[in-house]
Amino acid sequence: MPNKRNSAVGPIGMFDSGFGGLTVARAVIDLLPHEDVVYIGDTGRYPYGNKPAEQVREYARELAWSLVNDYNAKLVVIACNTAASVALHELSAELPVPVLGVVEPGARALVRATQNGKVGVIGTVGTISSGAYVNAIRDTKANVALTSAACPGFVEFVERDQTTGDEVTVLAERLLAPVRDAGVDALLLGCTHYPYLSRVISEVMGPNVVLVSSGDETAFAVRDALTESGMAATGGIGSHRFLSSGDIAWFAQLGRRLLGPELDSAEQWSNNKI
Ligand code: DGL
Q1: How far is the CA of 234 from the centre of ligand 1 (A)?
Q2: Which domain range does residue 264 map to?
Q3: Number of folded domains in the chain?
Q4: What separation in Å is there between the alpha carbon of 124 and the centre of ligand 1?
Q5: 155 Cβ closer than 6 Å to some ligand 1 atom
Q6: Which of 28, 78, 110, 191 is catalytic?
Q7: Which of 66, 98, 136, 193 could form a disulfide with 20, with the two C-beta atoms 3.0–4.6 Å apart?
Q8: What does pTM read for this prediction?
Q9: Within-domain flag for 149
Q10: Does residue 67 sit within a domain?
């Protein structure tokens, strides 16, 4: 484990394969208004969920190191379940700043939300097949029965700004059948894109199922990590920068709709410095 830099100077760095991590960025910006944030959406190489773990790990390394070296990030949030599932431990070990993922915070929020002890997790093929949630839920020591389902196709709908409608609903009916049939009363949206589909998912799951997303819990974890290490910004209004490895006009347009007014423009990110 490298000695971690310990500085209140610099932004919180965040990344995802695309727009999904904006659900986490929204929570971080709302909870920590004094903090600067730099967000990279790797839309030029998304989706991650169907790629081999080794490739996702390499992308995650590039993005995380870029946040530290090019943008002076004081802490990195892997705002992508697929990347966090396969790269959190490695990046925590090699980066000179603290690194947080979304899997453990999501698992904690999920086990708190259930009444009947039956919980579900949905995510990308990569996340579900990694077993990261099985491990994270076991680590909570909660006495719950977990049913997981991969939802290939959900991320692509979000990236195209198709978050409601018959096509999404038909796919959701099919993919959510295992968790619905298992009688879960709490379902973790274990992909940061999925909160944008929550209206459809909620309608398919029915009114008795609580949908849990990792954004808020991750933001609390970021706050605690900064406060405990004396790295929190103490005043002023944070600045927010957004970068994309793909079409930045589309990133600014859809990103602004999804995140809100802080995303007023997008810059190009390219991996040319490592
Ligand atoms: N937001 C990413 C996640 O949380 C989506 C992965 C993808 O690009 O397939 O898993």
Answers
A1: 32
A2: 12-101+216-268
A3: 2
A4: 6
A5: yes
A6: 191
A7: 193
A8: 0.95
A9: yes
A10: yes
Q: Last residue of some domain: 214, 231, 260?
A: 214
The C-alpha atoms of residue 42 and residue 177 are separated, in whole angstroms, by 30
23 and 42 inside one domain: yes
> pLDDT of 37-52, one tens digit each?
999 999 999 999 999 9
pLDDT score at 9 = 87
Q: What is the pLDDT of residues 118-163, one digit of tens each?
A: 999 999 999 999 999 999 999 999 999 999 999 999 999 999 999 9
Would residue 193 count as lying in a domain?
Answer: yes
Write down the pLDDT at residue 67: 98
Asked if 80 is an active-site residue, the reply is yes
Q: What's the CATH number where 116 sits? A: 3.40.50.1860
Q: Is 191 in the pocket of ligand 1 (CB under 6 A)?
A: yes
Same domain, 69 and 88: yes
In a domain, 33, yes or no: yes
Q: Which helix (H) or strand (E) holds 199?
A: helix 198-205
Q: Which of 199, 214, 229 delimits the end of a domain?
A: 214
pLDDT of residue 2: 63
Query: Does residue 41's CB lie within 6 angstroms of at least one atom of ligand 1?
Result: no
Give the model's confidence band at 1: pLDDT under 50 very low, under 70 low, under 90 confident, else very high: low
CB of residue 80 inside a 6 A radius of ligand 1: yes
